[in-house]
Amino acid sequence: MIIKACLFDLDGVLVDTAHFHYLAWKHLADKLGFQFTPVDNERLKGVSRMDSLKILLEIGNITLTEQEKTRYADEKNQLYLQYIQRMTPEDILPGVLEFLDELKSSGILLGIGSASKNAPTILERIGLTSLFDVIVDGSLITHAKPHPEVFALGAKLLHINSGHCVVFEDAIAGVQAAHNAGMKCVGVGSLDILKDADLVIPGFKNLKLKDIIL
Ligand code: G6P
Ligand code: MG
Hints:
The chain is built from 8 helices and 6 strands, in the order βαααααβαβαβαββ. By secondary structure, it is an alpha/beta fold. α1 (17-32) packs across α4 (66-84). It is globular.
């Protein structure tokens, strides 16, 4: 395929915020008195804040009122904000900057496709905002991954046909969203979890554009 645009998920792809999300959700689980493991957490990756809470409560077999749900989701977000407010450009994962630079100098457009409403704050903290030609975050979409909206909107704003876009994702729901948008997907993480991706890489360290064979 001819790659004209690359759309990157943010959490767990460019930065390790997936871990911060996990810690913040685990805090709630501890408080509500049930176990929440990294394996359970895979189900929450790429999923919106309220949908994540729904899954978390399902795991703990807990029923809350709408008001309580809003309160717990806010509490989780406050804790998460404490983690991300301490982020700096040093938190960009190894090899990411080099890879993005190579894409840019090859004339490939760059986009962010994240379900997070906190994506703009993180991009500012790590100094990457201006590198991207388009940023689609949780505040611009109504349907969470695996719905294709976040990537379809990114491609639309870049004026690039989905057949020329590649998505980079660490979440199962994100890989499905890319495919639902008619895009190829590079899974970032482990092959066991991301088996539906078209190619799986462990991370961006030493990655070159020529390695992305789709
Ligand atoms: C990303 C993360 C999810 C998170 C979602 C919403 O997709 O992978 O774990 O729940 O964003 O994030 P927010 O920052 O808006 O709560
Ligand atoms: Mg992610």
